[in-house]
Structures are given as structure tokens and as C-alpha cells.
Design brief:
Structural class: alpha+beta
Shape: rod-shaped
Number of helices: 2
Strand content: 15-25%
Strand order of the largest sheet: 3-6-5-4
Number of strands: 6
Order of helices and strands: HEEEHEEE
Largest sheet: 4 strands, antiparallel
Radius of gyration: 38 Å
Length: 149
């Protein structure tokens, strides 16, 4: 009888031990689920940081120069690069007095630059200065995509 009581106590002890192991396994499952959620949240935070750190220009154009150097902390919307909108290119130039009378507002002109004499750039005069310090004109290029890189 003592042997049977000891066996019954051992069996009850094994049941209690098994129930504790089940509880431990359940809490490990809950812990693993929490770890998965934490990993997903960390991945979402990294994706948000990547999205926030992408440079976005308001329109297409060419980079003229870098405003912010690497390592500089910028506020949201801060400028990193200065860009030139190739759809709105103009040139300021000076004309001698003998020529200025023939250069009227809206006149068509053809530009030939010393650097690229093989390119003829069609343009129009969009401004003639009213002050004669020098006669200043502005040209707006009609086909800016013809400029070489």
C-alpha cells in the first residue's frame, strides 16, 4: 500500500510538472509572438526611415551644386541640392549700342556658344532692360534638351 501511495504521489507530481511545462510552453509561444510583433514594428520603423531619407525633387532638372554636405542634419524639407529647371533656362547678355535697336522684345535669335559651336540654340528675347548701364537682354531657350551634358 505504501508503494502504491508513493506511485500515486509520483504520478500526481508528474501531472503537476507536466502542467507547469505546458504553462511554460504557452508563455514561450506568447513571448515568441511578442518578439515577432516587435520585429515587424522594427522593420516598419526602418522602412519609414528609408522613406523619410529619400531625396525628392519637386520637378525634373539638372543638379547645379550641392547645398548640404554629407553628414549635415537637415530639417524636414531642407535643401540638399540646387537644381536648374531646363524648361526655364535664360541667359543675361549685353549688347553694343549699335545692335540693341534691332533686338526687340519677342525677337527670335539663334545662340552659338564658343564652347559648343556645333549647336545652334533657338531662343527669344524676353526682356530688354530699361536702364542703359549696359543693355541687358534675357533669352529663353526654346529647346533646352539640346544642351550637351
Amino acid at each position: 500500500m505504501e508503494s502504491a501511495k508513493a506511485a500515486l504521489a509520483a504520478a500526481r507530481s508528474q501531472v503537476i510538472s507536466s502542467e507547469a511545462a505546458i504553462q511554460t510552453a504557452r508563455s514561450q509561444v506568447t513571448e515568441a509572438g511578442s518578439a515577432v510583433e516587435a520585429a515587424r514594428a522594427a522593420a516598419d520603423a526602418v522602412a519609414a526611415d528609408i522613406e523619410d531619407s529619400q531625396l525628392k525633387a519637386p520637378r525634373s532638372g539638372r543638379v547645379q551644386y550641392r547645398v548640404a554636405q554629407p553628414g549635415v542634419v537637415l530639417s524636414p524639407g531642407g535643401r540638399v541640392l540646387n537644381m536648374v529647371d531646363l524648361g526655364d533656362v535664360y541667359m543675361t547678355f549685353f549688347l553694343p549700342t549699335r545692335v540693341v535697336g534691332r533686338a526687340g522684345l519677342g525677337s527670335e535669335v539663334r545662340l552659338i556658344l564658343d564652347a559648343w559651336p556645333q549647336f545652334v540654340i533657338p531662343a527669344r528675347i524676353s526682356l530688354v532692360a530699361d536702364v542703359a548701364q549696359f543693355t541687358i537682354g534675357h533669352l529663353r531657350a526654346q529647346y533646352p534638351s539640346q544642351f550637351p551634358a
